[in-house]
Design goal:
The complex is a heterodimer of chains A (348) and B (505). Chain A is built from 13 helices and no strands. Chain A is mainly α and 348 residues long. Chain A folds into 2 domains: 60 residues, no CATH class; 279 residues, ABC transporter involved in vitamin B12 uptake, BtuC. The C terminus of chain A is likely disordered. Chain B starts with 6 loop residues before the first strand and ends with a helix. The mean pLDDT of chain B is 84. Chain B folds into 3 domains: 235 residues, 3-Layer(aba) Sandwich (Rossmann fold), CATH 3.40.50.300; 172 residues, Rossmann fold; 72 residues, no CATH class. Chain B is α/β, with parallel strands linked by helices and 505 residues long. Chain B is built from 17 helices and 22 strands. Chain B is globular, with a radius of gyration of 25 Å. In chain B, the strands form 5 sheets. In chain B, strands 6-7-8-3-9-10 form a 6-stranded mixed sheet, sandwiched between helices. Chain B has a 6-stranded mixed sheet with strand order 16-19-20-13-21-22, sandwiched between helices. Chain B has a 4-stranded antiparallel sheet with strand order 2-1-4-5, with helices on one face. Classes of the chains: A mainly alpha (348), B alpha/beta (505).
Chain lengths: 348, 505
C-alpha cells in the first residue's frame, strides 16, 4: 500500500521543485534576485500568522473550484467551467441575499448557499448532459459557458441590479452587513475555509469509500466495463457534475457572503481557472486538493509582496503558476517508470 | 555439413533472459531457402521472443544470426529491413483512414520531399500486377475486411523487396477461407523461389497444410525441427505440450427439462456508422444448452453481443430474460443472473488501471459483503474475496492489489471468468473466449463454460473459431449479414454447408 502512496507524492513534489527552479531562472532573467524573491514569497505566504491567514482565505475558493474539475475528471470528463459556475453561483447567491435582506442571517446564508450550489450545480450538470446526450465536447462547452456566465453577470450588474452607489466597479446591491459570513474564532479566516475543507473531506469519503465513488471510478476508467456491469452511466455523470458545480457555486456564494457582500466582477478573479491547476496537481484526489490549494493560496497571497519588494509585475505569480502547470503535466508521463519508488509487493 | 547458401536465415544458439525468466535457452532455427517454415509452440514458449531477436527488437544475450550464410548483428528493425527481412504482425499496422496506395507508398523508408502520386500509381500498378494479391488502390483501408488488410500487409512487405518474410500469427483475425487463400498464395511464392517464409502459429491445420518444415518450441527450449511430411498432428502436439495430446472430451450431461431463458425477438442493432448490423434477429436459448453462433467476423456478431451485454443501444425488437423484458440495467442483470464474458476482456470488461481485487467486484461491490454500514465500501473484504478467487481459478499474479493490466491475456480472462461465474449463472453470453490463449487455458475455459451449462445455465456462445463452436454447442447457428441463416446440431454438421452459409451464399 505504501508503494501506491509514495509515487503520487514524490513525483509532484519533484515537479514543483523543478518548476521553482525554472521560475528562478525567469526571475533572474527579469533582473531580480531569485533567492530574495523566494524568501519574500515564503514570507508573504507562510512566514507569519498574518500571512498564513491571508493564504488560507485565498485557499478557500480554490479548494471548491478544484473540486469542480477533479470530480468530473474521475468519471472521464475534462471540465474547465469552474469560473462560470463561481460567477453563476455568486450571482444567484447575491440575488437571494438581496431579496431576503430582512430575514434572520442564518436563513439568509442558508438560502444563499442553497441557491449558489443549485445553480452552479445545474450549470455544470448541463454541460455533462450535453456531452452525454448530444455528444458536445465538454471541455469546449464548459470553457465557452464561462464567458456566457460572465456576460450575464455583467448585464445584470450594469443594468437591472446595479446599485447606483457603486461607481467605479458596478455591483449589485449589498446583501447587508448582518448577513455576512463571519470569521472563524478570533482569526481573520472566514468560514469559507472551513466549508472548503469540509467539502473536500466529504467528497473524498464519497469518492473513495462509497459504492457511488467506486462506480464513478469504474465509469471513468473504462466506459465499456461500466456498461457491462449495468451501471447507470448517464446518471453517474450528471450527479458527479452536479456535485462538482455545487462546489464551485458555493465558492461563488462564499466570495459574495464573506468578502465582497455584492456580486461584481471580483467574482471572475480566475479562481475557477486556478482550480483546474490545483485539481491536476492533486491528481483529482479531493483530499490532496487541500494542501495543494493552500500552496496556491500562498502564491496568490505573496504576489502583492513581489510587486512591492522586488518591483516584479503582479503577473509574475501567473508565470509561476503556468510553469508549475506545464511541469506537472509533463511529469504525468513519469508514473510507473521508477520501480524503486514502489514498495516491494508481497506475493500471495 | 552446412552448405553456405542452403539457408536463408539461421539463428544459432540464441539465449535470452528477462530478469529471472529464461525466455530462450540455446535455441537454434534454420530457415531453408524458398521454404515455408512454421514455428509452433504454446503461449509463452518463446516464439515471439525469438522472432523479435531476429528482427532486432531485442538483443539476444548470446548466439548468432546468419543471413544467406553471413553473420550479422541486427541492432534494430530498420537494419533487419535492409537485410531483406520483413515482418507481418498479428495486428495491423496500416493507417485506417488512408487509401491502399497511400499506405503502400508511405511504408517506403526513403520518400522524396514531394511525392509524384501519378508516377507512384503507375509503378505500383505494374509491380502489384506481378504479385499474388490485387487491390483497388483508392479505397481507404478502414473499409477493407480483415483478410484484405492482411493481404495488404504482406504485399507491403513484398514491395519492400523482403526476401524473408516473418509472420506472427497472421491468420488469427482471418476466416478459415481467407487464411487458406493467404497462406496458399504465400506457399506458392516460396515454391517459385521468390521468398522464404517463417510463420508463427498455434494452428496445426495450417502447419499440416502449408508448411514444409516445422520447428517446435517449448518453454524457451527448442524441442526439434521436423519435415512436415514425416510427422502427424499427434506427434506435433506431443512436442508442443510435452505429453501425448488427447483431445479432451468435455463432460456433457444430458439436458433436463428445458425452459426458455434468453429470448430475442426481431432484434435490430446499429453499428457505429448507424448502419443496421443486426437485422431482425430472433433466437431462444434454453436452460441447460449452449447455442453457438458461428460466422465470419463483421456480420453483426459484435453488435449482437454488445447489445446483450448492455454496451450498445438496440434500435428495435426485444430481449427477454426469464420471460421478462430485459433492459440491461444493473437490477435486471442481478435479478435474472445474466452474465457476460465479452471478447478482449481487458478492453471490454476491466478497468486496466484498477487492481485485480477491484476488478473482481464490479458485479457486486454495492452489496454485502463488500459494503459496511450500508453506505461504505469494505476494501478489506474485496482483497479477501480476490485472494479466494485467485487461488480457486489459479490466476498467476503477484497479489490482488496489482493493476489488472499487468497480467497476461490468459490470466485477465481467468480473472473476468472468475468474476462472472462466481454467482449463480442462469444466462451467460460468451464472445470469442479463447482468442489468443494457449492450450491449457482454452481447455480450462471451455470446461468452465460447459459446467455452467451442466448446472442448467443458458449459454450463448458467439465465436469466430468454428472448432470451438463444434466442440461446445448443443445447437449451432450461422450468422451472416446480421441474420441467423442456418441452424444445425454439431453431430450432424456438414462443414461444407456451414462454410457456404458463412460465406453468405
Amino acid at each position: 500500500m505504501m508503494g501506491r502512496l509514495f509515487e503520487p507524492i514524490v513525483i509532484p513534489f519533484a515537479a514543483l521543485l523543478v518548476a521553482l527552479l525554472l521560475f528562478g531562472i525567469f526571475i533572474t532573467a527579469a533582473g531580480a534576485d531569485a533567492l530574495g524573491v523566494f524568501e519574500s514569497m515564503y514570507r508573504g505566504a507562510f512566514g507569519t500568522w498574518f500571512s498564513w491567514q491571508n493564504t488560507l482565505v485565498r485557499a478557500a475558493p480554490l479548494m471548491l473550484t478544484a473540486l469542480c474539475t477533479a470530480l468530473p475528471a474521475r468519471i472521464g470528463l475534462i471540465i474547465i467551467g469552474g469560473e462560470g459556475a463561481v460567477v453563476v453561483g455568486g450571482m444567484t447567491a447575491a440575488l437571494t441575499g438581496i431579496v431576503l435582506t430582512h430575514a434572520s442571517p442564518i436563513i439568509v446564508l442558508t438560502a444563499m448557499a442553497f441557491m449558489g450550489m443549485t445553480t452552479g450545480g445545474l450549470w455544470i450538470a448541463a454541460i455533462s448532459a450535453l456531452r452525454h446526450y448530444r455528444g458536445v465536447n465538454e471541455t469546449i462547452s464548459s470553457l465557452l459557458l464561462n464567458y456566457i456566465a460572465i456576460a450575464i453577470m455583467n448585464f445584470l450588474v450594469f443594468g437591472p441590479l446595479r446599485d447606483p452607489e457603486t461607481l467605479n466597479k458596478p455591483s449589485t446591491y449589498h446583501i447587508g452587513e448582518a448577513n455576512m459570513l463571519t470569521e472563524m474564532g478570533s482569526t481573520s479566516i472566514h468560514w469559507g475555509f472551513g466549508l472548503g475543507v469540509i467539502a473536500c473531506v466529504a467528497l473524498w469519503v464519497l469518492m473513495r469509500h462509497t459504492p457511488f465513488g467506486f462506480a464513478v471510478d469504474i465509469t471513468g476508467g473504462n466506459m465499456r466495463a461500466a456498461k457491462l456491469s449495468g451501471l447507470p452511466v448517464a446518471r453517474l455523470m450528471i450527479i458527479t457534475s452536479l456535485l462538482a458545480g455545487a462546489a464551485a457555486g458555493l465558492a461563488g456564494m462564499i466570495e459574495v457572503a464573506a468578502v465582497h457582500g455584492r456580486a461584481n466582477s471580483s467574482l471572475n478573479a480566475n479562481y475557477g481557472y486556478e482550480g483546474i491547476l490545483v485539481a491536476f496537481i492533486a491528481r483529482h484526489n479531493p483530499l490532496a486538493i487541500i494542501p495543494v490549494a493552500i500552496l496556491f493560496g500562498g502564491i496568490r497571497a505573496s504576489s502583492g509582496l513581489l510587486q512591492r519588494d522586488h518591483d516584479l509585475p503582479d503577473a509574475s505569480s501567473l508565470v509561476l503558476q503556468g510553469i508549475i502547470f506545464i511541469v506537472i503535466l509533463a511529469s504525468e508521463t513519469l508514473y510507473g517508470r521508477f520501480s524503486w519508488l514502489r514498495a516491494k509487493e508481497k506475493t500471495v | 555439413m552446412t552448405i553456405p547458401d542452403k539457408y536463408a536465415l539461421e539463428a544459432l544458439h540464441i539465449n535470452k533472459r528477462f530478469g529471472a525468466l529464461i525466455a530462450l535457452n540455446d535455441v537454434s532455427l534454420h530457415l531453408e531457402k524458398s521454404t515455408f517454415h512454421a514455428l509452433l509452440g504454446e503461449n509463452g514458449a518463446g516464439k515471439s521472443t525469438l522472432v523479435k531477436c531476429i528482427m532486432g527488437y531485442y538483443a539476444p544475450d548470446s548466439g548468432e544470426l546468419m543471413i544467406e550464410g553471413k553473420q550479422h548483428d541486427i541492432s534494430n528493425p530498420r537494419h533487419a529491413h535492409q537485410l531483406g527481412l520483413g515482418m507481418v504482425y498479428q495486428h495491423f499496422t496500416l493507417i485506417p483512414n488512408m487509401t491502399v496506395m497511400e499506405n503502400l507508398v508511405l511504408s517506403r523508408p526513403h520518400l522524396p520531399i514531394k511525392i509524384d502520386w501519378r508516377a507512384e500509381r503507375k509503378s505500383l500498378q505494374e509491380r502489384i500486377a506481378q504479385l499474388p494479391f490485387q487491390f483497388q488502390l483508392d479505397i481507404p483501408v478502414s473499409r477493407m475486411a480483415a483478410g484484405e488488410k492482411q493481404k495488404l500487409e504482406i504485399t507491403k512487405q513484398l514491395l519492400l523487396n523482403s526476401k524473408i518474410l516473418i509472420l506472427d500469427e497472421p491468420t488469427s483475425v482471418l476466416t478459415p477461407v481467407e487464411a487458406d487463400e493467404v497462406l496458399g498464395k504465400l506457399h506458392a511464392l516460396t515454391q517459385e523461389g521468390a521468398l522464404s517464409v517463417l510463420i508463427i502459429t498455434h494452428k496445426f491445420r495450417e502447419v499440416m497444410t502449408f508448411a514444409d518444415e516445422v520447428t517446435v518450441l517449448r518453454k524457451g527450449n527448442c524441442v526439434g525441427t521436423a519435415t512436415v511430411k514425416n510427422v502427424d498432428t499427434q506427434q506435433l502436439a506431443k512436442m508442443m505440450v510435452g505429453t501425448e495430446f488427447v483431445k479432451k472430451t468435455l463432460h456433457r450431461q444430458p439436458s433436463l427439462a428445458q425452459e426458455a431463458r434468453l429470448e430475442i425477438h426481431n432484434l435490430k442493432v446499429n453499428d457505429d456508422t448507424q448502419a443496421q448490423a443486426v437485422n431482425n434477429l430472433s433466437l431462444t436459448v434454453h436452460s441447460g444448452e449452449i447455442v453457438g453462433i458461428a460466422g465470419v467476423s463483421g456480420n453483426g456478431q459484435r453488435e449482437l453481443v454488445e447489445a446483450l451485454s448492455g454496451q450498445r443501444c438496440t434500435s428495435g425488437g426485444e430481449i427477454r430474460a426469464h420471460k421478462q423484458p430485459y433492459q440491461g440495467r444493473r437490477e435486471d442483470m442481478r435479478k435474472s443472473h445474466f452474465y457476460c464474458l465479452p471478447e478482449e476482456p481487458l478492453r471490454n470488461a476491466c478497468v486496466p488501471a484498477m487492481s485485480i481485487a477491484e476488478n473482481m467486484v464490479f458485479r457486486n461491490f454495492d452489496h454485502l459483503p463488500f459494503t459496511r454500514y450500508r453506505w461504505l465500501l469494505d476494501r478489506r473484504a474485496m482483497l479477501h474475496h480476490a485472494r479466494e478467487l485467485i487461488s480457486q481459478y489459479k490466476i498467476r499474479t503477484p497479489g490482488p492489489h496489482v493493476p489488472i493490466a499487468t497480467l497476461s491475456g490468459g490470466n485477465v480472462q481467468r480473472a473476468v471468468l472468475a468474476r462472472e461465474l462466481e454467482n449463480e449463472v442462469d444466462i451467460l453470453v460468451v464472445a470469442n473466449p479463447c482468442f489468443g490463449l494457449d492450450f491449457s487455458a482454452v481447455a480450462e475455459i471451455h470446461d468452465k463454460i460447459m459446467q455452467v451449462r451442466n448446472r442448467g445455465g443458458a449459454v450463448l456462445l458467439v465465436s469466430e473459431d468454428l472448432d470451438e463452436i463444434l466442440e461446445l454447442s448443443d445447437r449451432l447457428m450461422v450468422m451472416s449479414g446480421g441474420k441467423l441463416v442456418y441452424e444445425t446440431i454439431p453431430a450432424q454438421a456438414d462443414l461444407a454447408t456451414i462454410g457456404r452459409y458463412m460465406a453468405g451464399q
